[in-house]
Design a protein that fits this description.
The protein is of the alpha/beta class. The protein contains seven helices and twelve strands. The longest helix has 14 residues.
Length: about 220
């Protein structure tokens, strides 16, 4: 089945303590977003890529593409007022009969193994989200304070989250709700079951200065 990847990049630089939106901050000489797009092109050069960016960031992105001579082939959709709306705008550029993934623009280190796992599980079951084990102890907040929980019962969720497009497009016809924290929550709210795939710990979301340091170390090792 044909593969499509929607890359959502609508963040600001607030947590990064930067005036530059985090997806445009350079990592090893290139904006993070370019590394992410290259990652998918390297994985499957036939995969259709759809980049979702806020309309007011398009001109700046185009300037960066000229500066870095970045000429990868992809479609562009405008971001909305929420991630939900941004993904919906990206889905409008997808055609039927495909597996469609939704990925954070600031996750440039997703592995081939994670991508293989996501597409394989989604092909079989209709959905797949990459997860990893929690390496930290977890506590649940209660009205009296907090309590420990069994961390083996919890998983850390990553992207890309991959679905059969024929199902996902209908899920995004729902009204937006505050508890739509990712695409899996939208899919689940529509009554579909979410299946898990194996993620990779290096697949970090670069949102803070510490994440950027880790990303630089991963890039050097790579």
């Amino acid at each position: 089945m044909k593969k499509v990847m929607i890359i959502v990049a609508g963040g600001s630089g607030s947590r990064m303590q930067s005036d530059i939106p985090k997806q445009f901050i350079e990592l090893n000489g290139l904006p993070i977003l370019m590394h992410t797009l290259n990652r998918f092109h390297d994985y499957d050069s036939e995969m259709k890529l759809i980049l979702v960016l806020p309309k007011n960031q398009i001109d700046y992105w185009n300037e960066l593409c000229l500066k870095h001579q970045f000429a990868l082939d992809y479609d562009v959709a405008f971001g909305g007022s929420s991630r939900f709306e941004s993904v919906k705008n990206g889905l409008a550029k997808v055609q039927d009969n495909c597996l469609v993934g939704i990925h954070d623009g600031v996750r440039p280190f997703v592995s081939d193994e994670t991508l293989n796992s996501c597409f394989f599980v989604a092909q079989l079951h209709g959905s797949a989200i990459p997860v990893t084990d929690s390496v930290e102890s977890i506590r649940k907040l209660t009205t009296e304070g907090s309590e420990s929980v069994y961390r083996q019962e919890y998983k850390m969720v990553q992207t890309p989250q991959v679905f059969h497009f024929s199902k996902l497009k209908d899920c995004y016809d729902q009204p937006y709700q505050e508890d739509f924290t990712d695409d899996a929550s939208v899919y689940e709210k529509a009554g579909f079951k979410v299946f898990l795939a194996q993620g990779n710990r290096e697949n970090i979301k670069i949102t803070t200065p510490m994440d950027l340091l880790i990303g630089e170390a991963l890039m050097t090792e790579k």
